[in-house]
């Protein structure tokens, strides 16, 4: 399946947000009030750092042990003092990583997560040869 990705949706096309197909669409924050009325759309506000998930949408959690590993890795990066909090004699503090290093560490955690989630995706691909050109189909159940 192919679904649309539109980096910035023009104002004249806001009704596209009501289409019954999955999509990723960027909308300028000027139209914030117009899109909050949508019932089955997850809204990620990149400027405000919030995500609004309507009650009618169920998102499953990450499978274990990936969920626990990711939470622990993020915790150690975002709160490095937690690792040594129970030590009677904690090691001397090192200089805290600056924001660019923190950003790289968080990106690396999620890159590792995505690699682990999607490894083995090829086992879900089916080659269908009923057409002149073979079609590759993704089998969700496998």
Characterization of the model:
By secondary structure, the chain is of the alpha+beta class. The protein folds into 2 domains: 5-52, no CATH class; 65-121. Helix content is 26%, strand content 13%. The protein has 3 helices and 6 strands. It has helices at 32-35, 66-78, 99-118, and strands at residues 5-6, 24-25, 43-45, 50-52, 125-128, 135-138. The strands form 3 sheets. Strands 1-2 form a two-stranded parallel ribbon. Strands 3-4 form a two-stranded antiparallel sheet. Strands 5-6 form a two-stranded antiparallel sheet. Helix 2 (66-78) packs antiparallel against helix 3 (99-118). The longest helix is centred in the C-terminal third of the chain and has 20 residues, at 99-118. The protein is extended. The chain starts with a strand and ends with a strand. The model has no long low-confidence stretch (mean pLDDT 83). Keywords: Guanine-nucleotide releasing factor.
